[in-house]
Input
Amino acid sequence: MLNRFLISQLREELASSPAVALLGPRQAGKTTLALQVAKLIPHVYLDLESERDRGKLAQAELYLEGHLDKLVILDEVHRAPGLFPVLRGLIDKARQAGKEAGQYLLLGSASLQVLHQSGETLAGRIAYLELGPLHVLETGADAMPALWLRGGFPSSFKAPSDARSWRWRDNFIRTYLERDIPQFGPRIAAETLRRFWTMLAHHQGGMLNVAHLARNLGVDAKTAQSYVDLLCDLLLVRRLQAWHHNTGKRLVKTPKVYVRDSGLVHALLGIQSQEHLLSHMVLGASWEGYCIESLLACAPTGVSGFFYRTNGGAEIDLLLSWPNGDLWAIEIKRSSHPKVERGFHSACDDLKPTRKWVVYPGEENYPLGHDIQAISLHALCQSLQAQA
Output
């Protein structure tokens, strides 16, 4: 079993909060992690996609009152939208009896659904954690080429061959489109949404131009925007926001868009092998997205990610904003001998970041001048994790 770095944080939240929501895309490993944490304590597990388990909650308050002394794990909690008012009452009842924490662990595949339900009913009673696919610190540096090609979904990463991994991801995409996505929003033709998702993969790391996507898909801009929103809510697509603080320069404010898992990018584009990837036009953008997701996954709580670009050409691929006001500027290069371009120097002159890095595929860390350090992805992820 792969060790997930989030396990210690999940245990800490369960020790201090009455309810914890563990959010992440399907098949990212939420259930495995939840059962691993609960292994040594009394618990009840309910899979709300099972009719049998949903039937137990027909009289939810009566059933759950009988398990106030246990951790109750509710998987795919969006399937029981009326449950949160019941949980609120039971949490308050347990508090009066002296139990302050560790009552409910809620697993959800979409951020919007859980946040919408809990916004008015569990405020002050719930903590949120996000579990994404595997990252490089969880698999090890030696596995990085396979992790980049196959992506971080455990079943895809651990498949016996690249061909089986690709087949798993293709089936995963089909299942999401035909069975899972209709649970979260209005009915959308699976073929239409697959075409749209594939467009985003071709546009990996590009500026989000909804009007352009809408024209290519043959829908209006409002509909295309709703597709982007849905894929973001399902934690499958990331809108990386532009740095918006006033620097006295004309800034690009349109977000960039990334399909979050590199393995899904490759599956959507039909890339089945390392050789195919290395000769594909998406190579640089795929590497950039893979690095950004890895770094954001390893960054401590409270660190936010942006990109920076001015109309004059100054640019930073990833800008990490720390709670204390520090900025880390990160340039991402798919080159064994990275060179820093003028735009990065100009952007650093604008923002005065405290740390400046160039992430590249090599293993050696060395200075590039002007306080800029070339560093491997694994080493920078370790540096971020050490700050937690």
